[in-house]
Amino acid sequence: MSIWKISLQNLKSKPLYTFLSVFTLSLSIMLLLGVQQIKTSFEYQMENNLGGIDLVIGAKGSPLQLVLASVLHLDNPTGNIPYNEAKKIGKNPLIKIAVPISYGDNYKGYRIVGTTNDFRHLYNTELENGRDIEKTMEVVIGHTVAQVSELSIGDTFLSSHGLVETDIETHDEKFTVVGILKPTQKVIDRLIISNLESIWDVHEHEEETDGEENHDDHNDEHDHEHQRAHQNEEEKKITSLLVSFRNPTGFLTLPRTINERTNMQAALPKYELDKLYDFMGVGLKAINWIAYLILVISGLTIFISLYKMVKERAFDLALLRTYGATYFQVMRMVAYEGFIIVLMAFFISIVLVKIALPMLLETIEVGFKDNLLQRLPFQEIFQIGMVVFMATFLSIVIAVYPIMKMKVSEILRDEK
Questions:
Q1: Quick one: pLDDT band at residue 161, thresholds 50, 70, 90?
Q2: What is the per-residue DSSP string for 236-263?
């Protein structure tokens, strides 16, 4: 019988020890991998979803909320700003591109964003199928939206009011899909893009309908015309303005000018997201330390079990020595038990991370059908694997030390 088979039989003979060792080690590895994957995904979202956006201009309120709502599309907007004032700011010589966005509706939880053609270029994405928007009520959808909603070129749909999926407040106007974007692994994959006029038309029509229902039939036509004229005169609103600077000088002057001299606020996305990451980093580090603590406990568990096994099976090991087994072969048999446990735990933890982490985030996320988890790089998995391997190797070396001091004759004599 080979040494591998002997080690396997030893593990099968003590199922409780094997289960506890694999369970505790799997838990620690799963925590390490899970925390690292969340950290990697968060860093990826910050670095890539900013695209070419250097500054976000919106209504007064929380700057972090403004960035989350306008850049990552993870929160409600702080309010609306006048489109005319935003256009004036966009003409500043320090600004290279100024992209207005306006939203407030969704389809199956995916936000419908009214904007211009420059919005798509902020994320360096291209059309996979179809064409660009040419008139109102036409949309280009992100790759994820197309996959999940199963919308294709030429399909139509009705939008729902608000940013959360609901069938209670559905607009009457139908949007038509004219284009589908290539996958980018960025936030634009889960957006539905239209032009500003489409967003304004949908909500103005809703206001007209509400106004007509509140008037008598005698004054219905007159009030309808008066309301339409008033709306045409009323200044258009947008949610925010996404700005890309020509040079670093814009960072130094424009945000302070907007915050101090206008009724709007300017927020720097990278600065706000760095603050958020620092805040979250404390929790991630705490979980990381807990995972390493569990890893140490797992290593101790493996060491104690192997050490105990060596002591309890001293007679069997001594017999193996009398049948010609070398010290190295006996130590390999014990070491194989530890490495089999590690391999089982590592495999189980990787499977659990791939299955459990997306399911966990799916239960806590709001308003989205995907969480954009990034695949953990092999280098990160390898580094964690090396840490686990070294901890296990150290436990095995200490556990097999008594074998080096084994006196076969005394053990056989005492057993008799």
A1: confident
A2: PEESEEEEEESSTHHHHHHHHHHHHHSS
CA distances 187 to 273, 333, 368, Å, are 15, 52, 11
- Angstrom distance (rounded) from CA 401 to CA 403: 5
Spatial neighbors of 150 by CB under 8 A, at least 6 apart, are: none
The radius of gyration of the chain's CA atoms, rounded to the nearest angstrom, is 32
What's the mean per-residue pLDDT of the chain?
79
Element containing residue 89 per DSSP (H, E): helix 83-90
pLDDT tens digits, residue range 89-147? 999 999 999 999 998 788 888 999 999 988 988 888 889 999 999 999 999 999 999 99
Does residue 346 register a pLDDT over 80? Answer: yes
CA gap 389, 385 in Å, rounded = 6
Q: Is the pLDDT of residue 367 over 50?
A: no
> What one-character-per-residue DSSP string does 35-86 give?
HHHHHHHHHHHHHHHTTT--EEEEESS-HHHHHIIIII--S--S--EEHHHH
Say what angle helices 314-322 and 408-415 make with each other, to 10 degrees.
Answer: 120
Span 269-298, pLDDT tens digits: 988 888 887 777 777 778 778 877 877 777
Q: What is the largest CA-CA distance in the chain?
A: 116
Q: CB within 8 A of 409, min separation 6: which ones?
A: none
Q: What is the mean pLDDT of residues 65-89?
A: 90
Residue 192 near residue 184 (C-beta atoms within 8 A): no
Which two structure tokens, joined as six digits, stand for 198? 């489409």
Q: Which residues contact 365 (CB under 8 A, 6 or more apart)?
A: 371
Contact status, residue 88 vs residue 262, Cβ threshold 8 Å: no
Residue spans per domain, the chain: 3-46+277-415, 55-267
Q: Kindly report the pTM of this predicted structure.
A: 0.68
The dihedral over CA atoms of 218, 221, 226, 228, expressed in degrees to the nearest 10, equals 150
Full 3-state SS string of 99-153: EEEEEEEEECCEEEEEECCHHHHHCCCCEEEECCCCCCCEEEECHHHHHHHCCCC
Tell me the three state secondary structure of residue 193.
strand
DSSP 8-state secondary structure symbol assigned to residue 190 = G
